[in-house]
Design brief:
There is one protein chain. The chain is an alpha/beta fold. Among the domains are: 7-323, ABC transporter transmembrane region fold (Up-down Bundle); 426-498, 3-Layer(aba) Sandwich (Rossmann fold), CATH 3.40.50. The protein is 64% helix and 11% strand. The protein has helices at 7-19, 22-51, 61-110, 113-118, 121-163, 165-212, 214-219, 223-249, 251-276, 281-323, 383-390, 413-418, 434-438, 447-456, 460-464, 483-497, 513-527, 562-568, 571-580; strands at 53-55, 58-59, 344-351, 360-367, 372-376, 398-403, 406-407, 420-423, 432-433, 473-474, 501-505, 531-535, 547-552, 555-560. β6 (398-403) and β7 form a beta hairpin. The longest helix is centred in the first third of the chain and has 50 residues, at 61-110.
Length: 581
C-alpha cells in the first residue's frame, strides 16, 4: 500500500505547503501574542484593584474605576485580535488542505495505470477526502490552540517573574512532569490512529465497491455475505477508534492532575509569602490567576497533540499518494505526432504485469496503413494488453512499438493517443449533458457535427427521445441510460473525432443484434482508409478484417484473413466452429 511515512517525514513534507502561507502564519503569531498578553495583563490589573481595597471604609473607588476602564479596553482589543488570529488560521488551514488536495488529485491523473489497477478506488478516494478533512481539523486546532498555548506559557512565566522569582522558578521546575506525561501518552496514540485511518480506507473501498456493483450483489444473493464483511470491517474500525480515543483521552486528565498539583504548590507558597509580607494580597491573587492560566494551555496542548497524531497519520497517507512515482515524463526531444500514416510495427515486444508471470514474449507484427487488424483468442491471452501497450498505458518490458515509423517511446503520449479513437467494452461517461459527453474529444465541435456523428452511430433517435435531447443532463457513468445507450454515446464520441487510427475493444458487446448490424456498417464507413484494431469475441464481426491475429498465452499463433485461417483448420477454425457449428 505504498511507503510508510513517519511523523517527522510527514511534517517535513507539510512544510512547503505551509510556507506558502507564511505571511498569515506570522500575522497569526502576532495576533496570538497580542491576545495572550492583553488577556494576561487583565489579572495584573485585577490584582492592583484588590490592593486598592485596603480595609473597610478605605477603598480607592476612583482608582478602581480607572482600572475597570483599562480592563474593558484590554478585553475589547484582545477579542478583536483573537478574531483576526482565527481568520488567519482558517486561511492557513483550508489553503494548505486545498493545495494538498490539488496536488493529490493532480498526482492521480499522472499515476501509471499499474497503481490504479492495484489499489482499491475507495481507499484512494478516502485519502483525498476523509484524510484531508482530518488533516484540516488537526491543523486548525494546532494553529488556533498551539500558538496561543505556547505564547501563554511563556508570557505567564514572564508575568510571574515580575511578581516573585522564587515561585516562577518552582513552576518552571515542575512543568516538565506535565510535558513528559503528555508526550508519553501521545506517543502511544499514534499507532492507534494509524490503524484507525487505514481501516477507514478499507471501509470506504468496500462501500464504494458494493454500491457500484449492487446489481451483481443482489443477483447472486450476496447481501448477507457483504453485510457480514462490512460488519467485520466496521467492528474493527470501532475497536481501533475506541482504543485511539481511550488512550488519547488519558492525556487531558493526566496533565490536569499534574497541573492541579502545581496550582496547589503555588497557592501554598504564595499564601506563606503574603502572610510574611513579601508580596501583597493583590500579588497573591495575580499568582493564583496566572497559575490557572499557566496550566490551562498544557491541557489544551495535550488535546492538540492527540489530534495532531491523527492528523499526521492522515497527512502521511495523503503524502504516500503524492509521493507515488508518476508516469515517466515524455523525453525532452519527444516527437509530436500530428497525423499518423497508420503504419504500426511490433518488434520483439515482451511484456508482463508481474515479472514472474510471463505474458507477451518476442511478439512481432507489421500493420500496413489502412489495414483492419482483428485480434481474437481465449480470455487472458493478451488481447487487451496489446491495446494497452499500443496506447502506452503500459510500457513494454523489451522490444519496441513503432507508429508511422517512430518508436512510441520517442513521441509524446498526448500526440500518440490523439491519433487513436477508442471504444471499449467498459463504457465511461461523466456527469454533464449528452452533448458534453459526445464532444469530450472535440470540445469545439458544432451542434451539426455532433448530430451528424450521432446519426452515423445510430444514437440520434434515442437521444431525441430524452427529455431535453442533446442538453439532457446525465449522472455519473450515464445515470439511468441503458448499457447499450451508453455504448452508443461512446461510439458517437469516436465518430465525431474521426481519428487516423481506431481501437474497438468489444465495442458492440452491449448492443442488440439489429443495431449492431447498423453500427457495423457505420464502422465500415469510419474504418475506410484508417488502420483499425478490433478486439472481438463474436467472430462474425471480424470476418471482413484484412488480417486476423489469433493469440494464445501472449503469442500470435496464427495470422491471416478469415478464409485462409478456416482453410488451415487450426486453432481459429476450432474457435469459429465452436460458436457457429
Amino acid at each position: 500500500m505504498g511507503k510508510n511515512i513517519g511523523k517527522k517525514s510527514t511534517i517535513k513534507k507539510l512544510m512547503p505547503y505551509i510556507k506558502k502561507y507564511m505571511f498569515y502564519v506570522v500575522m497569526s503569531l502576532i495576533f496570538a501574542a497580542v491576545t495572550v498578553c492583553l488577556s494576561l495583563y487583565i489579572p495584573r490589573l485585577t490584582g492592583n484593584a484588590v490592593d486598592l481595597i485596603i480595609k473597610e471604609g478605605f477603598v480607592n473607588f476612583d482608582g478602581i474605576l480607572d482600572i475597570l476602564k483599562n480592563i474593558a479596553i484590554c478585553s475589547a482589543v484582545a477579542a478583536l485580535a483573537q478574531w483576526f488570529m482565527n481568520t488567519c488560521n482558517n486561511k492557513i488551514t483550508y489553503g494548505v488542505v486545498k493545495d494538498i488536495r490539488d496536488a493529490a488529485f493532480s498526482k492521480i491523473s499522472k499515476l501509471p495505470l499499474k497503481y490504479i489497477d492495484t489499489h482499491p478506488y475507495g481507499d484512494t478516494v478516502s485519502r483525498v477526502i476523509a484524510d484531508a478533512d482530518q488533516l484540516a481539523d488537526g491543523l486548525l486546532m494546532g494553529f488556533t490552540q498551539l500558538f496561543s498555548g505556547v505564547i501563554t506559557i511563556v508570557a505567564t512565566v514572564g508575568f510571574m517573574i515580575s511578581i516573585d522569582l522564587g515561585i516562577a522558578a518552582v513552576v518552571v521546575i515542575l512543568t516538565p512532569i506535565s510535558i513528559f506525561v503528555a508526550k508519553f501518552i501521545s506517543g502511544k496514540t499514534h499507532d492507534m490512529f494509524k490503524l484507525q485511518s487505514e481501516t477507514r480506507g478499507v471501509q470506504t473501498a468496500l462501500i464504494d465497491e458494493m454500491i457500484g456493483n449492487q446489481k451483481v450483489v443482489q443477483a447472486y444473493g450476496m447481501e448477507e455475505r457483504v453485510l457480514d464483511k462490512f460488519d467485520e470491517v466496521n467492528d474493527r474500525l470501532a475497536k481501533y477508534s475506541l482504543r485511539a480515543v481511550f488512550f488519547s483521552s488519558l492525556t487531558n486528565p493526566s496533565t490536569r492532575f499534574v497541573n492541579n498539583i502545581i496550582y496547589a504548590v503555588i497557592a501554598i507558597l504564595g499564601a506563606v509569602l503574603a502572610i510574611g509580607g513579601s508580596i501583597t494580597v493583590g500579588d497573591l491573587t495575580c499568582l493564583l490567576n496566572y497559575a490557572n492560566q499557566y496550566t490551562k494551555p498544557f491541557n489544551e496542548i495535550s488535546g492538540v497533540i492527540t489530534e495532531l497524531q491523527n492528523s499526521f497519520v492522515c497527512a502521511g497517507r495523503i503524502m504516500e499518494l503524492i509521493d507515488e512515482e508518476p508516469v515517466a515524463k515524455d523525453k525532452t526531444d519527444a516527437v509530436v505526432l500530428d497525423s499518423a500514416d497508420g503504419s504500426v510495427q511490433f518488434r520483439d515486444v515482451s511484456f508482463s504485469y508481474v515479472p514472474e508471470r510471463k505474458l507477451i514474449q518476442n511478439l512481432n507484427l507489421t500493420v500496413k496503413p489502412g489495414q483492419r487488424i482483428a485480434i481474437v483468442g481465449p480470455t487472458g491471452c493478451g488481447k487487451t494488453t496489446l491495446i494497452n501497450l499500443l496506447m502506452r498505458f503500459y510500457d513494454v518490458s523489451d522490444g519496441q512499438i513503432l507508429v508511422s515509423g517512430v518508436p512510441i517511446k520517442d513521441m509524446t503520449r498526448a500526440s500518440l493517443r490523439k491519433n487513436f479513437g477508442m471504444v471499449l467494452q467498459d463504457t465511461w461517461l461523466k456527469s454533464g449533458t449528452i452533448k458534453e459527453n459526445i464532444a469530450m474529444g472535440k470540445p469545439d465541435a458544432t451542434d451539426d457535427e455532433i448530430i451528424s456523428a450521432a446519426k452515423a452511430a445510430h444514437a440520434h433517435s434515442f437521444i431525441k427521445r430524452l427529455p431535453k435531447g442533446y442538453d439532457t443532463q446525465i449522472g455519473e457513468d450515464g445515470g439511468s441510460l441503458s448499457q447499450g445507450q451508453k455504448q452508443l454515446l461512446c461510439i458517437t464520441r469516436v465518430m465525431l473525432m474521426e481519428p487516423p487510427m481506431l481501437i474497438l475493444d468489444e465495442a458492440t458487446s452491449s448492443i442488440d443484434t439489429r443495431t449492431e448490424i447498423r453500427i457495423q456498417k457505420a464502422f465500415d464507413t469510419l474504418m475506410e482508409g484508417r488502420t483499425s484494431f478490433i478486439v472481438a469475441h463474436r467472430l462474425s464481426t471480424i470476418c471482413e478484417a484484412d488480417v486476423i491475429l489469433v493469440m494464445r498465452d501472449g503469442n500470435i499463433i496464427e495470422q491471416g484473413n478469415h478464409k485462409e485461417l478456416m482453410n488451415n483448420k487450426g486453432f481459429y477454425y476450432n474457435l469459429y466452429n465452436s460458436q457457429y457449428a
